[in-house]
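debug: dumping io for the single-chain case to check the tokenizer round-trip. Nothing else runs in this session.
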Amino acid sequence: MGCGERRRCKCCHKLFRPDARNRARQHYCSAPACRAASKAASQARWLSKPENQDYFRGPENVARVQAWRSRHPGYWRKERPAGPALQDVLTAQHIDSTKETGEVARPPLQDVLSAQPAVLIGLIAHLTGTPLQDDIVRTAGRLLRLGQDILATSAAGAAPAPPMPDGGAGGDRLRDLRQDPRLP
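debug: decoded output
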């Protein structure tokens, strides 16, 4: 396939193989911009012929259009009837067993977000590695103070940070929490 002679497109000047059925007349490649240029050139050629210059003008064409409009009043203004729906109506399908969908079906995100306190407690217990209530309360209080310090610092316009309890070594507070949840 395609063993014909290649030629240059008149628009983009790239080489292309013309279609075998239209080889003698095809001077543009199939790129969208080149096809648009081909159509514009074709229309300009047609309009440049003397017999076509007044094709859409003159009293006989005005009369033809006026007669058509009188036979079709309100053609452009009337609403088109609505066609059939493009989407089929779906019927609900009964799920036979929760065993099949047990692993796939999860609660919606809204249910998870409404359980924020439980999520927060679970996260703290996971990070600290202990499910004991006293450790979770102590860690939650420490995280609350840490958050308030961060918010106060950003509200004060990036004021200097308070001195670190590690002597300014800049240790990771979350890592410290994970290692010893009983820290103040």
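debug: round-trip ok. The helical segments are 32-48, 59-71, 98-101, 109-114, 116-128, 133-155, 173-179.
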